[in-house]
Amino acid sequence: MTARRLLLPLVILLVAAAAFAGIKYRVDPTRCSGCGDCTRLCPVSAIELVNGSSSIDPDLCIGCGQCIGVCTHDAIR
Ligand code: SF4
Ligand code: SF4
């Protein structure tokens, strides 16, 4: 099985585990540059830019963690 075939089940597993654990993320506005990379990446459009800083809607966030990986300012925890 190729690495690519393993990726989808792994992502599904991580999302399910995060959802089960109730993991939610938030943005530290003092670190956010407002670049918008996370807003473009979020698969469920849970992030929007507000007053130059991104903001995560906890009701929409599924806890996939992709935004953490894309943020170069370590602003999402
Ligand atoms: S990727 Fe990071 S710095 Fe850029 S808008 Fe999102 S939280 Fe802010
Ligand atoms: S953890 Fe996933 S769903 Fe939640 S805000 Fe980040 S990219 Fe969007």
Task: Explain what the structure shows.
By secondary structure, the chain is an alpha+beta fold. The protein has a single domain, classed as 2-Layer Sandwich (Alpha-Beta Plaits), CATH 3.30.70.20. It contains three helices and two strands. Strands 1-2 form a two-stranded antiparallel ribbon. Strand 1 and strand 2 form a beta hairpin. The protein is globular, with a radius of gyration of 13 Å. The model has no long low-confidence stretch (mean pLDDT about 85). Bound molecules: iron/sulfur cluster (2 copies).
Distance between the termini: 33 Å
CATH topology name: Alpha-Beta Plaits
**Portion in beta strands:** 5-15%
Percent helix: 25-40%
The main sheet orders its strands as 1-2
Provide the low-confidence segments as ranges: none
CATH architecture heading:
2-Layer Sandwich
Any idea what the radius of gyration is? 13 Å
The number of distinct structural domains comes to 1
Number of helices: 3
Compounds present? iron/sulfur cluster
Content-based structural category: alpha+beta
Sheet with the most strands, sense and barrel status: 2 strands, antiparallel
General shape? globular
Please write the CATH class name. Answer: Alpha Beta
